[in-house]
Amino acid sequence: MSDAVTTSVSIWAEIVAVAHVLTALAASIHCVLTKEEPRATIGWVGLIWLSPIIGTVLYYLLGINRIRRKAVHLMRTEGARELPATPGASLVGDALPPGTELGRLAKLGDWTSGTRLTAGNVVTPLVNGDEAYPAMLAAIGAARTSVALSTYIFDYDDAGREFLEALQAAVRRGVAVRVLVDATGARYSVPSIVKPLKQAGVPVARFLPGLGPRRIAALNLRSHRKILVVDGRIGFTGGMNIRQENYLARAYPRPIQDLHFRVEGPVVGHLRQAFVEDWVFTTREVLSGDAWLPPLAPIPDGDVLARGVLDGPDRDFEKILWTIFGAISAARASIRIVTPYFLPEATTLKFLAVAALAGVRVEIILPERNNVRLVEWAAMAVLPEVLRRNCIVYLAKPPFDHTKMMIIDDAWAFIGSANWDARSLRLNFELNVECYGKALAGRLGEIFDAKLKAARRLRLVEVERRSYPVKLRDGVVRLLAPYL
How far is C-alpha 5 from the chain's CA centre? Predict the structure, then answer.
């Protein structure tokens, strides 16, 4: 190699080294100033310095949250944002004794959720698609002014075609219809439902579509919300996607149990608020006026105090998680949880353990056979931590149970789209509804008891008897928990 070539290589090596130091220093400073989790900070800084240039590029693409939603600004500009946060101005003094645990939980929600607790709501559980889909389709069929539908998965199958036909019929009647489907969820069926919706004249958009450079950082940031609001007054929410397997009575292959809810009363305002903000973020179209946002009054026989809790990786970060922490802390007798995916972080596990060791009966129902095997393996690595600390775990036999609910002391319930995993609690856009009401909690308790009859209790000895290779497999997969 000639001296000129050697000199050239040396110069370029020095340039690359200087570029690495400068970019790594800038990325490290940004990481230290913006990351809340020390472990995440240490991990990223280590990658940045130990993987020259590549680590910095990965941090730039995947480590920075670029979701800067314009929805709030646009909504305020148009004067359409409703029920803004008013800390301390809730119904605690009127309906919940402020000195009680539930009163303190409501107070916490005033500060953390960004929405007011509302009175005069009716919340009706709908079990499986057999109850939920006919109710939703009937509401769409009776719509007079507007239909807002947001979902993670909208399959182009028998159930999807029923909704497609109902939405198309609503458009033909002159009803204003908007459909928002997550870009990832839209690809769960082939072909996608998006094109048939467009061909039917139904206005539809995909949440965070595309794979361009600006979208790479948003690959894990999905809209997992399930919202249907008809005429701005009747709402549906919960954990149910739109897919034929939720019709258990029709005996499709791979059936799915699930729970959805019909909602009436002022809390519907929180559902439509979530939709309107997601829609303007996706399309820049602001939905306003009485067609979308009519005044909402308490239902005369509504016996549920409720608020919507909007959660996402932007301004609503970890609001659902804080609500869960508050609920566990407020529990005095029982905590009952149903979730398909149980991969909570260490802090959440400690909250549950403290409650159980203090004498609260903590019961958790999980699927015996998960639809994602990696999640099932990772969960088995987590379960010894709760089983050793007096928590009771049940495994629900097939069909796969996708239900999501939490009940505290037979008086408070948390329902919606969020799972007990990092993807839901830190990455996805989610919507849960916090409900105070003994009648509703009692009905959900009955549903919980029915699930117990079809489940078996998991004992610590069973988990500990797993072979060493299986334990190793589960432990390794658990390391991937934030990405499952």
Answer: 57
Distances from the Cα of 397 to the Cα of 207, 256, 306, angstroms = 34, 12, 32
Calpha distance 156→154 (Å, rounded)? 7
CA–chain centroid gap for 46, Å, is 30
CA-nearest of 256, 298, 292 to 396 is 256
Q: What is the DSSP string of 101-141?
A: HHHHHHHHHHHHTSS--EEEEEEEEEEHHHHHHHHHHHHHH
Identify the pLDDT of residue 41. Answer: 81
Helical packing angle, 38-50 and 3-34, nearest 10°: 170
CB 436 within 8 A of CB 110: no
Name the token pair of 370: 């998960």
Instruction: Provide CB contacts within 8 A for 2, sequence distance 6+.
Output: none
Residues of the chain with CATH 3.30.870.10: 71-101+116-306, 319-483
Pairing state of beta strands 334-338 and 361-367?
parallel
Best mean pLDDT range from 132-146, 205-219, 465-479:
132-146
Total residues found in the chain within this entry:
484
Per-residue model confidence (pLDDT) at position 68: 47
Of 132, 101, 253, 1, the C-alpha closest to 140 is 132
Residue in 341, 127, 424, 367 with CA at minimum distance from that of residue 249 = 127
| 10-to-1, 15, 24, 214, 359 alpha-carbon distances in Å | 12, 9, 21, 34, 68
Left, alpha or beta for 173 (phi > 0: left; psi -120 to 50: alpha)? alpha
Output Rg (C-alpha) for the chain, integer angstroms. Answer: 24
- We find that the CATH architecture of domain 319-483 is 2-Layer Sandwich (3.30)
Tell me the helices (H) and strands (E) count for the chain, helix number first: 17, 19
Burial 271-302 (b: 16+ CB within 10 A, else e): bbbbbbbbbbbbeeebbeeeebbbebeeeeeb
Give 458's strand partners: 393
CATH class of domain segment(s) 71-101+116-306 = alpha beta
Return the C-alpha torsion angle 406, 407, 413, 418, nearest 10. 0
C-alpha to C-alpha distance for 466 and 388, rounded to whole angstroms? 16
| Nearest alpha-carbon partner for 361 in 386, 336, 343 | 336
Residue given tokens 């015996």 in the structure block: 368
Q: How confident is the model at residue 393 (pLDDT cuts 50, 70, 90)?
A: very high
Cis peptide bond N-terminal to 191, omega within 30: yes
What is the distance between the alpha carbons of residues 267 and 308, in angstroms, rounded to a whole number? 7
Lowest mean pLDDT among 90-104, 146-160, 403-417: 90-104
End-to-end CA separation in angstroms for the chain: 50
Distance, CA of 300 to CA of 305 (rounded, Å): 13
- Tokens read off for 178: 């908007």
Measured CA angle at 318 (ends 315, 324), to 5 deg: 145
For residues 6 and 66, give the distance between their C-alpha atoms in angstroms, rounded to a whole number. Answer: 42
